Amino acid sequence: MKKYAYLLLLTAYCLTACQKDFLNKGPLDRFTDELIWKDSSLVNLYIANIYSGIISEYDRGGSDLMMSYTDEGESNRPYLDGQLVNFAQYNSATGVFSDNWTSNYASIRKCNTLLEQLQSAPFSAALQQRMRGEAYFLRAFFYMDIYAYFGAFPIVDKSLGLNDELAIPRATNKECVNFILKDLEAAAALLPATYTDKAQTGRATKGACYAMKCRLLLNEQDYQGAAAAAKQVMDLNQYKLFPDFKAMFQPANDNNVEVIFDKQFGSLQSKQKHDLNDYEYPRNFTGFASGVNDPTQNIVDAFQMKDGKSWNESALYNPDRPYENRDPRLYSSVLYDGMMFRGEILDLQKGSAANPAERGTATGYYLKKFLDTTYDLKGISNPNLNNCIIMRLGEVYLNYAECQLKLGNAEEARTYVNLIRARAGMPVIPAGEMTWEKYEQERTVELAFEGQRWFDVRRWKKGPELLGRPVYGMVITVANGKRAYTRSKIEDRVFVAPKMYMFPIPLDVMNKYPAGKELKQNPEWD
After folding, report:
1. pLDDT at position 71, please?
2. Domain count of the chain?
3. What pLDDT, on a 0 to 100 scale, did the predictor assign at position 17?
4. Among the residues of 87-205, which ranges form H helices?
5. Mind telling me which InterPro entries this protein's record contains (predicted)?
6. Which of 86, 167, 475, 520, CA to CA, is 20 to 30 A from 282?
């Protein structure tokens, strides 16, 4: 019984017997395990269930998005984990991101089971190849997510049984990275570059493997390796920058040419819906305390004026009309006072319908980037089915540019940064003027709110400077019919380096290890 407890809670792995519990959920409950592994349609459903375990930004709807753990955002729910992190008031017992440990290990178990069962499945060689490729990719994806939040992890590459050692120690960082890379490379060798059958859209591809490899190696500061992986993505010639940044995240453009990998909602790969629209639309549209994650003035300030200068350096900036003449991406990413949105001019002065005194926007702004502007607001239980982009070519270009800058090839970096700026309608950076500061600014606004800011800041070792600084909002007042905009500090934040660059492994996971085989906690979190 003691070992059984470890098995359940150590890594959320289940015994072979537990597989039946999983398979008893949903439409698979009408079939035995023996039948399932002989039927390709049922195995496809099993794989779809693994895809559904991906924790995307949209899955965080109603709670803190990653933006609210960074200087991009502020939650209007003071009891959520983001506030604990921003004030450094958390520890192992708090369980911040504990779902990313337990849920990912549950999904890894499914991947291991799939790989084992496919060895004897009576499917065609082509189908076996695709399914094994998906299993390797997804296992790498889930391990990569654990590694991003907690660092090194216990490597489990098979379905564990009662007679197996369950108190598996954490591997080294190098061993973990190599394990993920091995899976991604195996997947890339098995998966197609694209699917001719549109019904398979959303499944992992060769490009998704290369792109995730690029992200992993960049965060490891292996700039040669990450640049090479980025080139592998580009050389596939499968992706292009979507011409309209504003429309890229709208459901009408799901699966557009820029998307390398996403989480599909409402499809075979997921069969899920999310709640992002319900919880991030301004309150005057929903009628309840929505707008949970609000952009800060810090991120608004990062969007340049349309002349390519910062707001406090450009002659185009007018403090009475602070949102005019800005980088067009601001208008696609943030809802601000006076903006026309769904037929209404937003009034964000305190006490208005859009910004009531209680649980209005915490910053004077609302998030816009991911909102489905066609979403039917008449019923809060309507399905949210727009896909969540996890990796796109724009990020690969920026990853490649960062590598080239670090490798001393500023002009090569400038080429790819300028592709991003040209798409946005911003002035390109002239020859000889590419700097790290310009790269960092460009990445900040292009990828704003997409969930990578925390990891970028950690890689740049700028936690105290960027995550530990005060965050600001905008206070809107009206006097004699004239609107005034005043920057206001929301809060001082705390970032303790290097301790906070990794989250502590949740205490309930640590406690499952027996005496003498304790799981090693991250530095300074003991």
Report:
1. 98
2. 2
3. 32
4. 98-118, 125-150, 173-190
5. SusD-like_N, SusD_RagB_dom, TPR-like_helical_dom_sf
6. 86
* Amino acid identity at 524: E
The residue ranges of DSSP E strands in 297-355, in sequence order, are 334-335, 340-341, 344-345
Distance CA(423)–CA(438), nearest Å, equals 16
What's the pLDDT at 381? 60
What phi, psi does 374 have (nearest 5°)?
-105, 5
Each as own residue / partner, the long-range contacts of residues 76-84 (CB below 8 Å, 24 or more positions apart, any chain) are 76/289, 76/291, 76/292, 76/293, 76/294, 76/359, 76/360, 76/361, 76/362, 77/292, 80/292
Please report, for the chain, how many H helices and E strands are present, in that order.
19, 10
Does 347 lie in the same domain as 282? yes
The residues facing 262 across adjacent strands are 389
Residues 422 and 486 in one domain: no
Between the alpha carbon of residue 467 and those of residues 60, 87, 123, 312, 500, the distances in Å are: 20, 10, 51, 22, 10
Contacts with 32 (C-beta within 8 Å, 6 or more apart), sequence order = none
Nearest 10 degrees: Cα torsion 445, 447, 453, 459: -100
For residue 432, tell me if it sits in a domain.
yes
| Residue 385: predicted pLDDT | 87
Question: Hey, what are 302's tokens?
Answer: 């990062």
Closest CA to 402 of 453, 448, 456: 456
Low-confidence ranges of the chain (pLDDT < 70): 1-31, 268-271, 379-382
Please indicate, yes or no, if residue 425 is contained in any of the structural domains: yes
The verdict on residue 471 lying in a domain is: yes
Query: Can you list the alpha helix ranges (DSSP code H) found in 303-370?
Result: 328-333
Q: Provide the residue type at 94 as one letter.
A: T
Q: CB within 8 A of 481, min separation 6: which ones?
A: none
- Residues 159, 11 contacting (CB under 8 angstroms): no
Task: Please name the residue that has the structure tokens 């899920």.
Answer: 272
Q: Residues 218, 243: one domain?
A: yes
Is 0.90 surpassed by the pTM of this model?
yes
* Residue 4 pLDDT: 33
pLDDT recorded at residue 269:
60
Q: How far apart are CA 79 and CA 236, in angstroms?
A: 45
Gap between the Cα atoms of 265 and 295, Å rounded: 25
Q: What is the pLDDT of residue 23?
A: 39
Cα 368 → chain centroid: 16
Q: Is the peptide bond before 498 cis (omega within 30 degrees of 0)?
A: yes
Per residue in 367-382, pLDDT (tens digit) is 999 999 998 877 656 6
